[in-house]
Amino acid sequence: MKINKSILIISFFSVLSLFSQKIKSPDKNTFLTFSLTEEGVPSYSVMYKNQEAIKFSKLGFELKNDNQNLMDGFSILNSVNTSFNETWNPVWGEESEIQNQYNELLVNLEQNESHRKMNIRFRVFNNAVGFRYEFPVQDNLGHFVIKDEKTQFAMTGDHTAFWIPGDYDTQEYDYIESRLSEIRGLMASSITDNLAQTSFSSTGVQTSLMLKTDNGLYINLHEAALIDYSVMHLNLDDKNMIFEAWLTPDAKGDRPYMITPANTPWRTIIVSDDARDVLASRITYNLNEPSNIEDTSWIKPVKYVGVWWEMIAGKSSWSYTDDFKAVKLGFTDYNNASPNGKHGATTEHVKEYVDFAAKHGFDAVLVEGWNVGWEDWFGHSKDYVFDFVTPYPDFNVEEVHNYAKSKGIKMIMHHETSGSVRNYERHIDKAYQFMKDNGYDAVKSGYVGNILPRGENHYSQWMVNHYQYALEKAADYQIMLNAHEAVRPTGIARTYPNLIGNESARGTEYQAFGGSNANHVTILPFTRLIGGPMDYTPGIFEMDLSKVNPQNNSHVNSTLANQLALYVTMYSPLQMAADLPENYNRFLDAFQFIKDVGIDWEKSIYLEAEPGSYITIARKEKGTNNWFVGNVNGKSNRNSKVSLDFLDKDKVYIATIYADAKNANYKTNPQAYIIKKYKVTNKSKLSQLSVKGGGYAISIIESNKREANKYSEL
Amino acid sequence: MKINKSILIISFFSVLSLFSQKIKSPDKNTFLTFSLTEEGVPSYSVMYKNQEAIKFSKLGFELKNDNQNLMDGFSILNSVNTSFNETWNPVWGEESEIQNQYNELLVNLEQNESHRKMNIRFRVFNNAVGFRYEFPVQDNLGHFVIKDEKTQFAMTGDHTAFWIPGDYDTQEYDYIESRLSEIRGLMASSITDNLAQTSFSSTGVQTSLMLKTDNGLYINLHEAALIDYSVMHLNLDDKNMIFEAWLTPDAKGDRPYMITPANTPWRTIIVSDDARDVLASRITYNLNEPSNIEDTSWIKPVKYVGVWWEMIAGKSSWSYTDDFKAVKLGFTDYNNASPNGKHGATTEHVKEYVDFAAKHGFDAVLVEGWNVGWEDWFGHSKDYVFDFVTPYPDFNVEEVHNYAKSKGIKMIMHHETSGSVRNYERHIDKAYQFMKDNGYDAVKSGYVGNILPRGENHYSQWMVNHYQYALEKAADYQIMLNAHEAVRPTGIARTYPNLIGNESARGTEYQAFGGSNANHVTILPFTRLIGGPMDYTPGIFEMDLSKVNPQNNSHVNSTLANQLALYVTMYSPLQMAADLPENYNRFLDAFQFIKDVGIDWEKSIYLEAEPGSYITIARKEKGTNNWFVGNVNGKSNRNSKVSLDFLDKDKVYIATIYADAKNANYKTNPQAYIIKKYKVTNKSKLSQLSVKGGGYAISIIESNKREANKYSEL
Question: What range(s) does the Glycosyl-hydrolase 97 C-terminal oligomerisation domain occupy (chains A, B) (predicted)?
Answer without folding.
Answer: 600-700
